What does this fold into?
Amino acid sequence: MPFTTLDFEVRDGIAFVTINRPDKLNALNDEVIAEIAAAAEAIATRDDIGGAIITGAGAKAFVAGADIGELSQQGPIDGKARSRRGQVAFRRLEQCGKPVIAAVNGFALGGGCELAMACHIRLASSNAKFGQPEVKLGIGPGYGGSVRLPRLVGRGRALELLLTARMIDADEACRIGLVNAVHPPEELLGKAEEMMRTILANGPLAVGLCLEAVDASLDMALDDGLMLEANHFGLLSATADMREGMTAFLEKRKANFQGC
Ligand code: COA
It folds into this structure.
């Protein structure tokens, strides 16, 4: 699928996805959501992609939310359908089986914060701002904000942000666990790529099962999560990658994983 609202470029195993509507601060209209869904599918299924980095075009915004012009026209039925389309697209990204890093380069508001939260790791530039301002518009989050924010920062902090619509800066977002690290704007993409290269040098089957285990076990009873982990541990023991990883350690060399 050719993209019109995204730049989608694969370089040496990494898909660089840039939401590209800078004149609207990269707001998520229906077309962007459809293209994020297509991009997530490509990331999940293309063998030449090991992981993805998502960012926003321009210096000002990652994504300033769902497109308020479109939302203003919706009724209850198409509003729910729009919410479901966005949720499904973001969930596909979250469950693509490969690491996805959000490089948050400016405003990440509403759907932008929700997109970042659907990524596995969030790195922010020092000028980034986060918030869920939906209640100011008389609506609530529609793309997973009320579900993922409490999982990331805890119920009390999530409710404070959701109910007050307060915008927080990158340092506060880092302090409460919403982002993993803060970098100067000019270093953000380089740092995201460096982290992704570190991940991609590891066993890809093991990385994929870590993603699967954490995603699934957050909704499981402790004992079920532990059983899933043990099953993954056993399964990975049947792989050539495990033999390669351990042999490389014993031979004091770098492992060369094949993903099998
Ligand atoms: N939907 C549609 N258009 C948006 C948008 C959104 N979520 N966020 C920004 N834009 C548009 C603005 O309408 C403006 O378009 P215009 O130049 O055609 O008038 C352009 O992007 C630039 O935004 P502007 O508001 O002029 O920039 P600013 O620096 O003064 O303010 C923000 C930046 C992010 C604080 C402000 O744009 C804002 O509050 N956006 C909405 C955030 C929001 O509520 N998101 C959740 C939606 S559910």
About this structure: The beta strands are 6-11, 14-19, 51-56, 61-63, 100-104, 107-109, 121-125, 129-131, 168-169, 181-183. Residues 47 and 243 are 22 Å apart (CA to CA). The mean pLDDT is 98.
